[in-house]
C-alpha cells in the first residue's frame, strides 16, 4: 500500500543533482560558463556525428547526457562518512570502488557513491566522489589531536536531514513532501560557508600540514568542491575554455584522444582564491582567503574488463616513464605525443575491443534471422558477425586513481606535493563507512550478462513462435 506514495530514489537523486547544479552555478559562476560551453560542444558533436547520435538514441542514453554530472566532497570523520552513506542510499546511490590517494601524496581515501544497475543509471547517473581525511597521516601529534577535536565538535547534517533519513530507512521510502524537504536539507550540508570555524593561526598550522587538511578541518561542512558535466568531446571543450575566460589545467588526464573512447578523460580549471573570514579567540573576525573550489569536465568512454584495465594501466605507466607531466604544463605536448604513441597498442575499433575481451558491451537483437537451432553464448561471435546481434559499449561510471590524483594535485599546487607512505587501508575505510564497497567489475559484467541472456531468450523465443506459426 505504502509503496505507491513513495517518491522513487531515482527521482530524489535527479532532484538533488539539479538542486546542487543550481546552487553551484550561483556559488561559482565559472561553472555556469563551463556548462554553457559543454552544451554547445555536445550539440555540435551530435550534429556532426549521426552514428554517435543514433547509438546514444538506440541505447536510451541521449537524454541523460546533458543532465549528467559528478561532484566531490571531502569528509573529516568516520561518523560523517557512515551518515553520508545512509543519506546517499535514500537517493539510490551506493559506494562503488576504493581509491587510495596516499600513494599520490594526498592524505585521503575515497569511494564513489552512485546508482547501480542499468535502469537507475539511465534515469540519472549522478555520482559523488567522496573522500575521507586520513588523519592518521598527520605527523604532528598535537595538531592531529586538535584537528580531531575540531572535527568531532561539528555537525554537518541538520536535525531534519538526520530524521528524514531515519524515516526513509524505517518506512522504506519518502513521500512527496518529505522528499522535497530531504533534498533541501541535504543541500545545506554541501553549501559553501565563507566563515571558517577556526582561528587564522589554526588555519595556518593545518595548511602547513597539508592544504587539504585545512580544507577539511577549517569549515562547518564538506562544501561541494567541484561539479563536473559530461562532454562528448573533451578536446573541443579544453580548446574552447580560454576564449570564455577559463584557464584549463595543462593536460587532459586519462587515455589519449581516440576513435573509440575508453574509460574516462578529465580536465579541470584551477581552484578559485576565495575570501573567507576566521574567528579569533576574542570572537572578532579577520579576513583571509582559501582555495578549494574548482571546475572540471569529463568525457566518458567504454568500461574495461580487468584485462582491458590491466592493459590501460600498463600503457599509462609506460607513458609516464617516458614523460611525467609537470604542473606548469611545460612538457604537455611531449606528454600528449608519448601517450598517443604508447596507446597505439590498445585496439581502436569496437569490434577489436570486443573480440580481444577488453571492454564490456550490451547486446541486443538487431534483426530477425533464420536460426538453425537453439542459440547459446558460444554462438554470439557468429551472430555478431552476421549482424543478427548488435553490441554497444557500456559507459564507464567510475573513476581512475591516477587521474583523481592529477585533479587533486592540480588544485594543490606543486609546493603541496608531499610524500606519504603508501598505505591503502580498504578494511579500515569499510569499517568507517559501515559497509563494504561494491566491486565495479562485477557490476559491469552483470549488466553485460543480463543483456546476453535477454538476447538468447529473445532469439530462441522468436524461433519458437516462428515455428508455431508455420505449423
Ligand atoms: C576529488 C578529486 C577526484 C575526479 O573526478 O577524479 C575527482 C577532490 O578533489 O575532492 O573528483
Ligand atoms: Ni571530479
From TrEMBL:
One of its GO terms (molecular function) is dioxygenase activity. Its EC number is 1.13.11.93. It holds the Pfam family HGLS. Its cofactor is Fe(2+). This is 2-oxoadipate dioxygenase/decarboxylase. It comes from the Bacteria. Belongs to the 2-oxoadipate dioxygenase/decarboxylase family. It is an enzyme of class 1 (oxidoreductase). Gene3D superfamilies: Uncharacterised protein PF07063, DUF1338. Keywords: Dioxygenase, Iron, Oxidoreductase. InterPro entries: HGLS, YdcJ_bac-like. It comes from Neomesorhizobium albiziae.
